[in-house]
Every structure is written in structure tokens, then in C-alpha cells.
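Revision sheet: C-alpha cells.
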Amino acid sequence: MTTTAEAPRRTLARPTPTGTAAALVVLALLGAAIWAFSSLRLNVATFVDGAANAVDFAARTLPLDFPPLGELLALSGQTLAIVVCATLLASLVSVPVAVLAARNTALGGTSRFGARVVVVVARAVPDVVLAIVFFRMFGFGGLTGVLAMGLHSIGMIGKLYADAIEQVDEGPRTAIRAAGGTRLQQLVSGVLPQVLPSFVATSLHRLDINLRVSVVLGFVGVGGLGQAISDSLRTLDYQRGMALASVVFLLCVLVEVVSGAIRRNLLGVREEPRSGTRKGRLRMPVPWRAGVVSGDGGKNDHPRSRPSNPRRTRRTARRIRRTGYWLLTALVVLASIWGADLSLAQFQRATTDFGPTLALFWPPETGGVLGELLAELLVTVQIALAATLIGAVLALPVGALAASNVAPSPAVAKLCRGVVLAVRGVPELVLAIVFVVITGLGAVAGALALGVGSVGLLGKLVADSLEEVDRGKEQALRATGAGRLQVFFAATLPQAAPAFVAHVLYQLDTNLRSATLLGLVGAGGIGYYLLNASRVLEFGVVTTVLALTFAVVMLVELLALWLRKVVR
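Predicted:
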């Protein structure tokens, strides 16, 4: 009798061609980022040489010179009004776009493709280019900023709205369809109630982003704090410019805190324990059901005979607060429309000049400047790659310590969350101005500004991803006596790695567009040529810069989309 040895079982999955290609692309991006970091000469010597400039800049900045209180409030109010109106415009337009773009609500393949194209194009066109176009049409005023930020924001809001619609529970919608409900009734009654919390949270997040973007648009004619900062820096009045920048920082932090409170109260969400080992999750309150209050078989369940229920009292108070927040939101919107100084007559006059204005930007200017623009575009790509590498290296430890399941103590987690919030509150343009003064004009300042700024968003995304892993694997390792670092590297980090890769790719996409904008203040790249061309009325060059930037952003967008599907 002969026996055959049993073939050893495979413990690792066989590599697939797609997975191998994705790994090679990720390694190539990492290599490109290291090359960009090295070619820009980002090293310790840069900071040593700029130490004296930093001391001189601090001496020229302090003490801060704030404008009179009335002027400061007027500038802040105008900025907030423009930002709120732009976010509202984007949110309203994004609803039908998202409905047509979502797989489960699209009218067909053609409509879905068209809506997705609108979303991608809106994201790829820099808002500063839109501001240049609208400034030519409308001149100074809030309408330029509202349209520029609003149309660009559709790219982000429309995409997230569509993703939320695709993730709804199809049960209510199917029931409405079975009862004879129309497509509109299915959307209003079966889809909208489920996605409303996500819609509001997305709009509030975009409001925070638009507040920081408003500083950039101030350099191309949009009023408010951004324009005041631009005027101050143009005259080298750093005391006034940095004072106004600190006001923007405080407004960003305030908006972040207020938006968090609105999400908790306006939407009626609350923290409750998760099933299993999860810490907690946001959940809509469960409606009160009759027949479970008194526990006496229902004889005291009549509304007139029910005993006092503390839970019902809390729900009533929550409804009152929710109604109050809705009313407050309506008042803020009305005040913003008035404060942004939107003129319908101005819009009607501009529509008559729409064709001649667009004719100024066509055809693109390619003779004599194309080679120079391509060289500066390469510098812009280098800035984005180096900044993403810096942000990833810094955000991973900060984000890990901000995660409640990784931090050694709740105090450390709160401290790191505070650091992330503080960094997010500083506009990248302000960081670029500081680094330009310290390190001089050029790409180094842009890379450092975007690298530090990336810690805010990327650190938050890393912390959230680490907190969302399966806690069961962590507890299993702890039961075997594994230490904190062993649990992190063997259980927590491997689970969050795919999300981390996706977040880094998203940050690269964001940094590529931001690197174009930072050139407005001399931080290197193609942005300087964009601003200079708009000032000397060479609109064909503006179109060329837009086309080049659009092509690169679309390439990165498609590459990131493919990689996210592979590593998911």
C-alpha cells in the first residue's frame, strides 16, 4: 500500500495581473514622489538657510495690525455670505446631477455618463480659472466668487451625493413603486429621507473647504477677506495681512465646530454602542412605537392614559432643537444672499456679453510660450508629488495617534485631533505666503506649504480609517499577549492600508489642483503664468494653462479611480 504526500496548502492568494500592475503603479508613484522631493532640494539646509528669514518675517509681522472692528466684521460677513451662497448653489445643482449620475436612479446609460462627465469636468477645472472668466464678465462683486466656487464645488458635492444615493436601502423605494408611485414620488419619499443626513454633512464639509478657497480667489478680484489679504501683501504690509489671515483661521475653526454641532442636532444623530466590538456609530433615532411603554399588555397605551415618558420628552426637545436649526439655517441663507450683494441686473447684463467674453479665451495661445508652460507644468507636478509624500509621512503618525483605538490615552487622541483641526483651519495659500518669505520664491515654498496643509485632511482620514477597522482582530492578538505596536502593525494597519492608499491618491489629486493655485503668490509652478496672463489680458494663455492642467488632472483622476477599485 502506497501513500502520497499531501500537497501543501497555499496560504497566500496567487498574485493577479491586475494586482501586480497596481502594485507597480503605486511603486512608480512613490518613486516619482521621491524623485520630486530630491529634485526640489527639500532638505535640512533649506530650513537652516531660511532661519534668519523666519526671524525677520516674525519681526515684520508682529504685532498683528487688525483693521477697525466695523471693517473687520464687514469683510468677514462678506466672505461668509459669498461662501454660503456658493455652497448653496452647488448643493442645489448637485441634487439633479447626482440623481442622473447614480446607478440606481439614472434614466439610462447616456444620462449617467453625461452626469458623470459634468462631475469630473467640474472637479478638473480650477476655480481660479472660473473666477478669471467670471471676473471678466461680472467685474468686482460677490457674483464672481459665488459662481466660481459654486460651479467648481459641483465636482465634489455631486460625486458624494451620487455615491450616497447608490448606497440607499432599495426597500422603501421598491414598496412605493409597487404601490404605483411615480419616479418622482420614489425619489422624494424613498430615497431623499435616507440620503438627507449625508447630503447635509457633505454640504457642510464643502462649506469649510470653500471658506479656505475664498482666500485664493481674493487674489483674482473676489471681495472679502481674501481680497483684503491680497491688497495687504501686495504692499508688503505683513502685519495687516497676517492679522487678516488669523481671522480666516478662526473662521475656519468656528465653521468646523458649528458644522459638527449642526450635524448632531439638525439631523438628530446620536452616539450609541456598536454591535460587537465597535466603539460607537451615528444613528438616526428610532421612532417611538405604541404598545411597548407601560408593559401592561397595552391597556395604558392610549395617548390620554400613557404615563410620562422621559424618552418622549427628550425626543420632543430634540425636534424643537431641530426645527430651530432649520429656521436658523434659513435665516443664514437669506442673510447671505443679501450680504453677498448678488445683483440680478448685473447677471442679466453679463449674459448679453457671454459670447464675446468667451471669444476672448479662444483660440489657445501655443506659439512661443508652450515650451515654457510645459516646463512649469512639470514643476507643478513635482510640487504636488513632493507635497503628497511629505503629507503622507507626517499624517500617518499624527492620524494614528488621533485614532481612539491606537492612541495610548484619550488625552493623546484629543490632542492630535486638535492638531489636525488646527492645521486644517490654515489656508494653504497663507502657508505658501509664509514659506515664500522664509525660503524665497519658487517650488520649495509651494511643496512645503502643501505638505504641511495635507496633514490636516490626510491626518483626519487616516484617523477615521483606523477607527473603522474590525476590533475583533485587535482583541484576538491582545489575548495572545501581543503588545500595542504588534497589534497595530499586525492587525490595525493591514486592515486600513487599502483606505490609506485611496486617501493618499485623493490627496495627490487635491494637491495637483492646489499647486496650480499657489503659483499666484510666487510658490512656483504654472500658477504664476496663469495670474500674469490674466492681468495683461492674454486670455489665450489662460486657455492654454487650463487645457494643460485639465489634461494632467484628468490623467491623475482616471489613474486614482482605477487604483481605488483594485485596492478596495
